[in-house]
Amino acid sequence: MAGESQNWVLMVTAQTPTNIAVIKYWGKRDETLILPVNDSISVTLDPSHLCTTTTVAVSPSFQKDRMWLNGKEIALSGGRFQSCLRELRKRACDVEDKKKGIKISKEDWSKLHLHIASYNNFPTAAGLASSAAGLACLVYSIGKLMNVKEDESQLSAIARQGSGSACRSLFGGFVKWIMGKEEDGSDSLAVQLADEKHWDDLVIIIAVVSSRQKETSSTSGMRESVETSLLLQHRAKEIVPKRILQMEEAIRNRDFASFSRLTCTDSNQFHAVCLDTWPPIFYMNDTSHRIISIIEKWNRSEESPQVAYTFDAGPNAVLIARNRQTAALLLQRLLYYFPPTSGDLDSYIIGDKSIAKDAGINGIQDVEALPPPPEIKDNIPSQKFKGDVNYFICTRPGRGPVLLSDESQALLNSENGLPK
Ligand SMILES: Nc1ncnc2c1ncn2[C@@H]1O[C@H](COP(=O)(O)OP(=O)(O)OP(=O)(O)O)[C@@H](O)[C@H]1O
Ligand SMILES: C[C@@](O)(CCOP(=O)(O)OP(=O)(O)O)CC(=O)O
Fold it and tell me: Which family is annotated (predicted)?
């Protein structure tokens, strides 16, 4: 290891998106390697609205590997973090920074320690796939720091060992996690089906129903489902393989009717598996069910589906609108049923606020003036549910991981490698 002193710090910062599964991963055939019982497909969400930023630093002065998540130090001792670090260290290559006079050889990486700081710009462990963006960003940024030569698919097989859904966050657009057949997991990895420009009409609105930490984690929930749900076995063997082919075709042809039907039925089946688990697991709540019913009623009143819904291991609704115009109509409906408790719309509709402008919503007076949606005209007066949604995030399909070269975006101090 060559450097002018032992005090140098070399670091890399990366940003990685979250993803939402439209054909769900639920159930492992190998708990340690994180090998799934079926393939899954996801849409990557625009990192300008939902993302993880991670800075990783290396220095001979660091005494041990350390990590800070959202500003608080967390233990890196967990098996999953250790699996990712071990796999990355195995693949590390020579690194040279001529400007700083730093040379790290392949062999040095096993002796050097890392500092990692990560920040999620959205709630952690609330069913918004923080583990997906987080673990993908950890693997991607360390891979870059250590000059790992593997491509994104090979990196995805490492991220998979941190959290299954993380492997799909190594790509933008539409992504498939191929379950693989090998016992060592070497063929269980993600591939890109189409990039984010392929179907850029789509608009995504997330209704954050609760940002509290959930009762049953995805990891333990799916373990219990594998142990007790016969529906899960049937789903993995008979249903998902066919749906994967149909979903690939729907994405290829930008066929919203088929995409929407598959997305909604697969989300519903995943939650049916949770209900079929013993003891049963409930991730959706009354508000989630209400949102499904609003969308179903609207879709039925139109000639073709306007919006797809999907829910992960939590009550938040991820709503995919076929285009901007539909997204504006969707937002009007959502605000009609779920008006904010305060007049502060700025923190109630976040992300791409231009959707609210398209919907004619410029202030709370516009929300109050919204007429009931035409599809419920016979049932007036309809009930409203003020306060049942915390806020809405307007976003779209987005790109994969990127490196941030601007040092002002780093989360660690370049002098001492400690959080800024
Ligand atoms: N930025 C991050 N970097 C590294 N690890 C992270 C990061 N963010 C979250 N995690 C890990 O993921 C865990 C949360 O995962 P969990 O599966 O419980 O929730 P979630 O991913 O938000 O929801 P879900 O996967 O059900 O959509 C955290 O406790 C932490 O261990
Ligand atoms: C419902 C899901 O979001 C489940 C995600 O599970 P995780 O990837 O969080 O689970 P582990 O592999 O145990 O870390 C569906 C999906 O993303 O496909």
Answer: Belongs to the diphosphomevalonate decarboxylase family.
